[in-house]
Amino acid sequence: VPLAQDVKADIIARGTPGFSGADLANLVNEAALFAARSNKRLVDMDDFERAKDKIIMGAERRSMVMPEEERRNTAYHESGHAVVARALPKTDPVHKVTIIPRGRALGVTMQLPEQDRYSQDRDRLLNTIAVLFGGRLAEEIFMNQMTTGASNDFERATEIARRMVTQWGMSDSLGPMVYGENEGEVFLGRSITTHKNVSEATMQQVDAEIRRIIDEQYALARRLLEENRDKVEAMAKALLEWETIDAEQIEDIMQGRDPRPPKPSSSGSGGSGGAGKAAVGASPSAKPA
């Protein structure tokens, strides 16, 4: 495949964790198809970004017409994720934010790891929980409402907090113990194979500790958004105008500068260098292994 000079293999590698050889071959084929549709002679970084986004998050749903209020809400939601991620020390860099609907998501904040990571430390997990709460909090603070769009964020945050307490021994009050064991008869129902080897009083302590972790990170995310209201407003405005912003534009906003215009793209896609979980909306690095 003939490549343009702007193709950066390290960026592609960071955005494709866990891809097999066949997955990478599919990525190259999709990028080549995007280039061919745009009558390009070379496959550039924009094509690889669009191909990666399509494979990981699903095809763009540009035919989906969103009401303006819901579009604004999505812009603030994703801006909340991104600003909290940029404000905390142990989070992966924000690579891209988009409000173009993909798959089941109305928007996506994508974080890319800078290096391979085989375990997660406590502070990184806590920061991840705070980032997940950034979306709902931005809706509350800037749109004065709550929507169902944060349900997956809550599910992931609660799961991380629960595993910190019950499996990973990261609670000071409950100590390095495993609370509850799941044993492996995969053909039987979950309720049958889950053995309750702790008392009801201990489980109440577990629930209280999970609640404490959740509440502390929720409060932290709220404080960061309140302190950076101008940056959230600027990012939401940029998203409403361009639909997708990249790492350079995000850096401009976080430094208090006006974001630079999107990079020119012959593909005609809205937004900057790419078209755009988790997520955080759909972030590949947000959920620990």
Explain briefly what this protein structure is.
The chain has 289 residues and is mostly helical.
What does this protein structure show overall?
Helices cover 51% and strands 6% of the residues. The protein has helices at residues 9-14, 21-37, 45-57, 68-87, 122-143, 151-166, 190-193, 200-227, 229-242, 247-254, and strands at residues 94-98, 108-111, 181-182, 194-195, 244-246. The model is unreliable at 183-188 and 266-289 (pLDDT under 50). It has ten helices and five strands; from the N terminus they run ααααββααβαβααβα. The strands form two sheets. A three-stranded antiparallel sheet has the order 2-1-5. It is mainly alpha-helical and 289 residues long. It folds into two domains: 1-57, Helicase, Ruva Protein, domain 3 (Orthogonal Bundle), CATH 1.10.8.60; 69-254, Peptidase M41 (Methane Monooxygenase Hydroxylase, Chain G, domain 1, Up-down Bundle).
CATH superfamily of the largest domain: Peptidase M41
CATH-level-2 architecture of the largest domain = Up-down Bundle
Distance between the termini: 33 Å
Query: Count of helices?
Result: 10
Entry keywords:
289 residues, mainly alpha, Helicase, Ruva Protein, domain 3, Methane Monooxygenase Hydroxylase, Chain G, domain 1, 3-stranded antiparallel β-sheet, two-stranded antiparallel sheet, 10 helices, 51% helix, 6% strand, globular, disordered C terminus
